[in-house]
Amino acid sequence: MTAPLVIEFAAGSALLREHDRKSDLTILRNGPPGTFVHLGDVHISLPTDQIVMSEERADSVSMGFGGMRFVGIRDGRLTFQRVRDLRPEEELSPDRSWTMTLEPHWVAAIHEDGRQVWPTPPSVDAAGLCASCTYAKVITSSRGSAFSLCQRSATDPEFPRYPALPMRACRGYDPRG
Ligand code: SF4
Prior knowledge:
Blueprint: E1 5-9, E2 14-17, E3 35-39, E4 42-45, E5 51-56, E6 61-65, E7 68-74, E8 77-82, E9 99-102, E10 107-112, E11 115-118, H1 124-127, E12 136-140, E13 146-150
Antiparallel strand pairs: 1-6, 1-10, 2-3, 3-4, 5-6, 7-8, 8-9, 10-11, 12-13
Bound molecules: iron/sulfur cluster.
């Protein structure tokens, strides 16, 4: 999964393309006009001219963007700004959006330049071994709070779903490579 900015949408998300939508604009690969992420009863519209990749899995979708940066949470919403157009001005819509905002509960994680930037992964001080374990998955609540979920708990009841942190010793620890 390579793109300057990758947004992993929440479980249950799917890519929706309106193939019939006509446009004279040149659009990159996966981003024709009418590309949405569908989640529950919401259609999330995207700055399609900035999309450079999409990855569809069984239960969710990730979208990659160029020329966009994550600038943090503004007014309770994850906020992204267009910092550079990927195509020449004449190929782009004059009505293109400069800011994208998303509800935090729509999103599982945000990566910039290959590094997770939201939710902020727990530090070694705060999480102990879970901070660097393959089986730890950072999840976020609808209010934006981050927790570490132990994925071993799905198959082994000895592992708590949400371990008490910091974890100082664990027989299941598997350091991320
Ligand atoms: S296996 Fe242990 S160290 Fe790894 S995430 Fe689970 S509780 Fe944390």
